[in-house]
Amino acid sequence: MLGILKKILPKKQEDEQLSARDLNGRNHVGYPTLQLSREIDNLVKKQYKSIKSVVKMYKDTLFFKWIPAIINSELSDEQLANLSGRNVQMVYLLLFRDMLRHLSDIITPKYATENWPELFAQEALDACKMLSDADDKDIAKKQQLFANTQRFTVDKPIDEKHPENNEIPDWVTPIAELIMISPKMLYKSHRSLVNAIKRPKKRA
Q: What does DSSP assign to residue 134?
């Protein structure tokens, strides 16, 4: 799928030079990802400059590396062709908002209110018009997921050597289903980043 996202928006390649899988990856993953990423960057620039480095790390890793790699690895050509770009955006936004909720224990941006993670996510949602498509068959499910006010549990470890012992939290599966990927891989990706952000930095 175009080397994941490195070639998702080729500058010199014409559409007819791309495979059907590459085109679907660009249209259903690449473009939606870039739109949401830009709206998040705009909000950071206007109101949340103090968390710029954390936001960049999370987006660069989850939006542009890990989740696209999982999609490319797990989805068939047919599934990728049927993947909703709006669903991709919603999955990213739900995980991003949860990261902000965890981050709020450590950082409060200047002039921000107590519920700043919710306000940030709502503005990004509105800017992308993420729930505005009349023909979106998953809109009710996404509305319900976005309405959730609970912070996601990320304290259950993943045991790679004994996968039968893994217990994935209940919140994971409905989100993973939106983009047809493994709940375990989605949880593992989000969990590792959130825990890295929350981990105290070592001082020299």
A: T
pLDDT of amino acid 157: 86
pTM of the full structure: 0.90
Q: Is 3 left (phi over 0), alpha (psi -120 to 50) or beta?
A: left
**Using CA atoms, how far apart are residues 138 and 94, in angstroms rounded to an integer?**
15
DSSP code per residue over 9-77: S-SS--GGGS-HHHHHHIIIIIHHHHHHHHHHHHHHHHH-GGGHHHHHHHIIIIIIIIHHHHHHHH--H
Per-residue pLDDT of 67-122, as tens digits, reads 999 999 999 999 999 999 999 999 999 999 999 999 999 998 988 899 999 999 99
What residue spans define the domains of the chain? 15-198
Count the helix, strand and coil residues of the chain and give each as a percent rounded to the nearest 5. 65, 0, 35
Q: Which residues contact 24 (CB under 8 A, 6 or more apart)?
A: 1, 77, 80, 81, 83
**pLDDT tens-digit profile of 169-196?**
999 999 999 999 999 999 999 999 999 9
